[in-house]
Each structure stands twice: as C-alpha cells, then as structure tokens.
Design goal:
This protein is an alpha/beta fold. About 55% of the residues lie in helices and about 10% in strands. It contains ten helices and seven strands. A five-stranded parallel β-sheet has the order 2-5-1-6-7, with helices on both faces. It has a two-stranded antiparallel sheet with strand order 3-4. α3 runs antiparallel to α5 and α5 packs parallel to α7. The two termini are about 30 Å apart.
Length: about 300
C-alpha cells in the first residue's frame, strides 16, 4: 500500500541552518529550544544549542573569544557603569577592574541588587553598539562555521532581543526633544539590518505569548523576574508593572521585526502547554525541511 505524504517519515536534513528564537522574557524560548534539539537528534540530525553567553562562559582564549568577551564586558560596563545610586556615585565605582569576573554570580548580584536612581541614555547607545558588534562576531565566528559543517544550530535567544531592550530602556530616559532619540533610532535600525538572518540558511522564529502569562511563568520558574527584564536599570520601579510594560513594548517591536524578517510565528499558550510546544516544534521542523529543500 502506498503511503500518503502525512504518514511518510520526514526526509533527512541535507544541510545546516540556524534557528534563531525571538521573543520576550518568559515566553518559553529555552524550553522550545531544548525540545527542538531533542526532536532533531531523534531524527539523526546533528543539532547543537548555542548562545553567546554560554559560549563566553567557556572562556575561549583566542582572538575570537577574547574579542567577544571584551564586547560583552563593554556592553555591561556602559549599560550599568554610569547608573546613579541612591547613596551617591555610580554603579561603575563598584565594578571589578577590566578583565575582572564580569560574568560571575557575585557581579550579577551586584547589578541586580543595586539601588539605581537613573542612567545615561548615551551610555545605553554605546551598550547597544557593543551588543550588535558582539552578536555579529558570534554569528560569523561560531554559528556560521557550525552551519557550514552541516549542523542545525539553535539559538534560544537571538541577538536582536537585547538590542531592542536597551533601546526601550534608553528611550524611557530621553525626553521628546532629546537629540539622543535620533541616535537611538539610527542604532536600532542598524541593528535590525546588521543582525538580520540569512534567508538561505536560517529560520528566524518569533515566539509569542501574552506578557501577563510570561510574567507568571517567570515568577514560577525563578521566584522573581531578572534584572534586565524590567525598567530597574534606568532607575524606575521594578516588579510586575515594570516587567509587563517593558515586555509589551518589546513584543510590539519584535512583531515589526518579524514582519520585516519574514519570521515564522509560533505561540506557546498557557492552556495545553505540551500540545502547544509540540505544535510549535512541528511548525519549525517543517520550515527547516522546506529550507533544506530550497523552498
């Protein structure tokens, strides 16, 4: 009996590609990335989870690793270093020296627990530029070689996410007549252009969910939201309202980027989460198969 198309086993993927997940904090990107890796591995596909942060934690001591570590450190230093503190001075006064442990748990606690009263939008512009440069270097030096080697690379957080959040943090500081707004718009546009995935070798995926649901997931996972998931870095209140506002504004820009980049759109609804996850993975794998067939 001849099998129908729906019952036939999927064809093996014949070439590498990159799957970049885009979405707000708490949307479920990490869970989705892990399930994608599992399903691809079951099919015998060489799949690998990659992220710039995890790559840097391995502390690769070569030109590429040192360069990306410097850019990551520059992004953190300019984002937080000029932030004013309630007790006077700036948060940068408490930073470790250059080449210090900027990815250590102690340093993260310092950033998350600081009583920030304000920040400098021009410093955040610099941080945006460091993020764009760092993710470009990561894509060209780490992701692209893996794709050329025939692997399916899964990035649970595309680099554009941090650029968008920095943009929103900075615009909340700049008044309507502030000249820094022009620079912010230009840098955001440059980031969207520079970090756009290669349509011939990439499947960009926009993962969507109500920010209220994302907040509930985040708190259920970690007991609180993270230090860069609200307006705390610019001296505004933290907590639920701050989180939902930043994530809602982020999601609006991600939606615009999704249209511009031709992203595949998937949802991870709160009801039947397992079913939603399975459906999302099926959609992404179908897009990967189509890419491999030149569609």
């Amino acid at each position: 009996m001849e099998r129908t198309e729906s019952t036939m086993a999927p064809k093996p993927i014949s070439r590498g590609c990159a799957i970049g997940l885009i979405g707000i904090d708490g949307v479920g990107k990490t869970t989705l990335a892990g399930e994608l890796e599992r399903r691809l591995t079951e099919r015998g596909v060489p799949a690998v989870l990659l992220s710039r942060r995890q790559y840097l934690k391995t502390r690769p001591h070569d030109f590429v690793g040192d360069t990306m570590a410097t850019l990551y450190e520059g992004s953190l230093r300019t984002l937080y270093g000029f932030a004013g503190l309630a007790g006077g001075g700036t948060l940068g006064d408490h930073f470790p020296p250059p080449a210090g442990p900027v990815m250590s748990a102690d340093f993260e606690r310092l950033l998350d627990g600081a009583a920030i009263t304000g920040n400098d939008p021009h410093a955040l512009i610099t941080s945006m530029l460091c993020e764009i440069a760092g993710h470009l270097a990561f894509r060209e030096a780490v992701v692209a070689p893996a794709v050329r080697a025939g692997k399916v690379v899964i990035e649970d957080t595309h680099g554009i996410k941090m650029v968008v959040k920095l943009y929103l943090l900075a615009t909340s500081l700049a008044g309507s007549g502030d000249l820094s707004n022009q620079s912010l718009e230009a840098v955001l546009k440059a980031g969207i252009t520079a970090l756009r995935p290669d349509p011939a070798a990439s499947v960009p995926v926009l993962v969507q969910v109500d920010p209220e649901i994302a907040y509930q997931r985040r708190v259920a996972q970690h007991g609180r939201v993270g230090g860069m998931e609200h307006y705390g870095p610019v001296g505004r209140a933290v907590g639920h309202d701050s989180y939902v506002e930043l994530q809602s504004r982020s999601q609006k820009i991600f939606d615009e980027i999704g249209t511009l980049w031709g992203c595949l759109r998937v949802e991870l609804p709160p009801q039947d989460r397992e079913g939603g996850l399975r459906t999302a993975v099926d959609q992404i794998l179908a897009a990967v198969d189509g890419l491999a067939e030149g569609q």
